[in-house]
Amino acid sequence: MSKILGRRATDAEAALARVETALGELVARLTEGLVEAKNRVALAKKDELMLAKQAEVAERAAAQWGQRAMSAVRARDDVVAREALVRKVECQRAAEEFRAALSARRAEAVRMTSALGAESDRVEETKQRRNAVLLRASRSDAAEAVASALGAATPEELLGRLEIELAVLDREARVARELSEGAVAPDSALAADARRTDNELAALKELVKAAPRKKPLAKTTGEARDARARAGVSASRRTKR
Fold first, then answer.
1. Considering the domain boundaries, does residue 121 fall inside one?
2. Contact 105/48 with Cβ under 8 angstroms?
3. Domain containing 35 — which CATH number?
4. Which of 85, 92, 125, 169 is the most exposed place for a label (fewest CB within 10 A)?
């Protein structure tokens, strides 16, 4: 029997170790994904700065070509003025493209930042769920639930199945405890009522003992007259005899 119990304990420890490893890998994978998401957000912000700078450079170049075109017109050099205006338009078009790319990249960065917050919350929630499951699974009554959940295909499924199996165990234990308490409660209530009755009876007896005895009430005038009349009749009967 001791060998069987020892083997069962060893199997339970091995199953729990497998669960801990699988859930640890799940948390590690989610954490790695969170790090990658942070890197993508950082790259998006870096791209924002670069696009903003390129747009500013193109806008300044367009302004400079516009000034050259004005100088050429003043110098009555139409060829140079025309060429400067062409370059100005090109720079303006480039600046607009950079601004459009910047707007798109900024919107993408906002979306990625929001997703990053959700991913961070998911990692923290998974850690808390893992810790709670491992703590509950370490109890002796959870061995079968742990062994059953190990058939899950993925760590995510394993975590979900363990939560369900362990919740069922807790619910069954709570129901059994409530039923046990419900069976004991009537007996306890009857015993409490009996003790209360005994205590009240004892208190009444003490009150009776402590109370002064009452003297018999004096007879009223009418009662005394009736008594004398009855006594007189009795005496007359004895005399006649």
1. yes
2. yes
3. 1.10.287
4. 125
- Contact of 40 with 109, CB cutoff 8 Å: no
Contacts 24+ apart (CB under 8 A), 30-33: 30/119, 30/122, 30/123, 30/126, 31/123, 33/119
d(C-alpha 19, C-alpha 160), whole Å: 12
User: Phi-psi category of 137—alpha, beta or left, where left has phi over 0 and alpha has psi -120 to 50?
Assistant: alpha
Domain that holds residue 59: 2-142
CA angle 51, 57, 61 (to 5 degrees): 145
Distance CA 119, CA 115 (A): 6
Could you tell me the pTM of the whole model?
A: 0.58
Would you say residue 28 lies in a domain? yes
- Domain count within the chain: 1
Q: How many CA atoms lie within 13 A of 180 on its CB side?
A: 6
Alpha-carbon dihedral 188, 193, 195, 200, rounded to 10 degrees: 170
Query: What are the C-alpha distances in Å from 38 to residues 42, 45, 102, 121, 206?
Result: 6, 11, 19, 13, 83
**Residue 37 covered by a domain:** yes
What pLDDT digit, counting tens, does each position of 2-46 carry? 444 344 556 678 888 888 899 999 999 999 999 999 999 999 999
